[in-house]
Amino acid sequence: MTLDSPTVTGNRGLVIEEPLIFEQGSPDKCGVDLPEPDDRPDRLGGVARSGPIGLPGLSEPEVVRHYTRLSQKNYAIDAGFYPLGSCTMKHNPRLNERMARLPGFADLHPFQPESTVQGALAAMGHLSDWLLGLTGMEAVALSPGAGAHGELCGMQAIRAALDARGADERRVVLVPDSAHGTNPATAALCGFQVRGIPGNDRGRVDVDAFKAALDDRVAAVMLTNPNTCGLFESDILELSTAVHEAGAYFYLDGANFNAIVGRVRIADLGADAMHINLHKTFSTPHGGGGPGAGPTVLSGALAPFAPLPHIVADGAGYRLVEHVEGDMQPFGRMKGFHGQFGVFVRALSYMMSMGVDGLRQASGDAVLNANYVMARLRETLTPSFEGPCMHEALFDDRFLKGTGVSTLDFAKAMIDEGFHPMTMYFPLVVHGAMLMEPTETESKESVDAFCDAVLALADKAKAGDAAFFTGAPRHTPRRRLDETKAARNPVLRWEPPAPAQAAE
Amino acid sequence: MSTLYFTEDHEWIAVDGDTATVGITDYAQKQLGDVVFVEVPEAGKTLAKGDEAAVIESVKAASEVYAPVSGAVIEGNADLADAPATVNESPMDDGWFFKMTLSDTSELDDLMDQEAYDSFVAGLD
Q1: What pLDDT is stored for residue A4 in this prediction?
Q2: Helix A444-462 to helix A407-416 angle, to the nearest 10 degrees?
Q3: 20 to 30 A from A173, CA-CA: which of A27, A111, A263, A457?
Q4: Does A1 score more than 50 pLDDT?
Q5: What ipTM was estimated for this complex?
Q6: By residue range, what is the domain housing residue A286?
Q7: Does residue A147 contact residue A185 with C-beta atoms inside 8 Å?
Q8: Domain B3-104: top CATH class
Q9: What confidence tens digit (pLDDT) does each residue in A468-499 have?
């Protein structure tokens, strides 16, 4: 521990105490040296700013160092193991970045004539073909900008299909306990009333409760499979059949597609709609590293209602369908333009470099890694459910009972060990959840290093050293934050110190 | 003197004639941890038994408070917006969420009394 040997600067080796850029610069300094122009006609129509806005002035190296130092305080998949369950933090191959930076892809404008962007449209067409091939579905909307946006797209298509058949009484959406938290929010946003369905003691949907809830007011069911307990919904065919017999639609949340890609055709499960998080399953950056993308695949029943634009292969080339043609009944658009094109290129690059066999192996390795974590930890920690898991291993806090250590304390100690903590307190259906998703990215060595640390910490907690945990983290630039105070009294804006204010 | 009932979702309801006060139990606030945000219903809102009546957010999770019985909201506890910690400090008293009328007092028969709720909670740990 170095805490009792303070340095003059407050820095600790390469761990630099980095002030805010506003605290470093000052409005009366400037990093560039330009002569005052003699003649400054007002071309701003009288809306020129009336006073200084207090931007700090710094030299270029000061700015470069500031942002470089900030970036070094970030934890990222490029820096280490990132077992955040339900998030699929897999490696983003550099090949994807190389492809996305090709000038023919990177330097486009969405208003360019179609004849000049045939390659880009072809890439979107190929991506569509891959997504339809992997899921067996009828149509795909590429434009949704993230997972929850894809949910919105699928549920809007369901809403449009219900409206088209005049089923105004169907306004209830069933959402099992083990679904993603965004599902009920999406259903509510589309004007549906949400009804929860309990899980059973195997961590799956309670089939009897599910069937009992299906009546002629039900518009749709939103199910996540594998679910947020990391378990495959083994009764899914019985569930989807019951949904369709009841005259409702079946929305599948594809956030956990990484566990089954190349192995399960979504159409075979009876799904009517599913969003696909390209940023999870298909290795595009996320978690602060880049925009998401949530293309949504639709069944034959919903395909006529797919939002515009559509990508169509027409004879020699591709074109974007931006207006209604034939008997299509699009419910609208999801975005002004065509979606996260740079993400499409990265995802397609991943698919083409992996191949179908490679994607199949990736999902298998992701499940194998999670089960390896489960096997190594299950005797010491407390798994929430019996049997093997899919792509993520779920534990609860029973192993900490009576130790005085909480899931949060345990996660803070993981930070000192150099790991991004697992997902905590989610899913809500188990107490003090710890959800670990290693993905296929990690080698046996890195998974072992993680498990070794978890096991050692669990032993330490059980041995009664609660103070070690409640005092963690110790090696971070800042110690434990007061999350309650941060939420109750958030300080969201830097204010200049009082003397500077008085001088103005 | 009001009579206290409890739900399996850890709400309490103190009934006095055909009006009642609703809040969450001490067990619920302990499970949630530090409460950082509360949204209570507006007066006049009609609630069916089991409807989402209020929203509560803690450092751990966001969840709903359900109407233990059917009725109409008389008043939401406006003090909670600025002082959500009251739910932690005084869940059974100053931390009440809303007052309501009861449209069907027979719905109270489905709820638990203090003794039944205590043994229900004991069975959860």
Answers
A1: 65
A2: 130
A3: A263
A4: no
A5: 0.77
A6: 95-352
A7: no
A8: mainly beta
A9: 999 999 999 889 999 899 988 889 998 888 76
